[in-house]
Amino acid sequence: MNWIKKVDYYLWGGSLLFGVLLPVLGIRLPITHAMWVGVVLVIINGCFSVWLGGHLYRTGARWWTLFILPIFFIVAAYVWLPPYTYYFALAYLAITYLSCSLRKQD
Q1: What share of the chain is helix, strand, coil (3-state, %, to 5)?
Q2: C-alpha closest to that of 71 among 52, 58, 98
Q3: CA 99 and chain centroid, separation
Q4: Beta carbons within 8 Å of 70's beta carbon, 6+ residues apart
Q5: How do residues 51-81 score in pLDDT, each as one tens digit?
Q6: Of all helices (H) and strands (E), which one includes residue 70?
Q7: Considering the entire predicted model, what is its pTM?
């Protein structure tokens, strides 16, 4: 039961929400694919990646937690999204890493 207290619900829940549910629900919206990619994948998930990097720095999380959002996203992209969205997983990893590492310099 001690491991339940150590689980970071913001990290796991947010990564599940923004990595799987939001992109899958976003393709069901009555908007064009260009707007969907721009709004959901670039703006919303990009902002979440910046926040996640700061959150990981503040909580002192381990290095492997940087990969949780990209792994959730790549699984969702493989199952439900078009093939060109695979590259966004690398972008989210890079943004999260840069957000975390740039805060270490302050």
Answers
A1: 85, 0, 15
A2: 52
A3: 13
A4: 19, 89, 90, 92, 93, 96
A5: 999 999 999 888 899 999 999 999 999 999 8
A6: helix 68-79
A7: 0.89
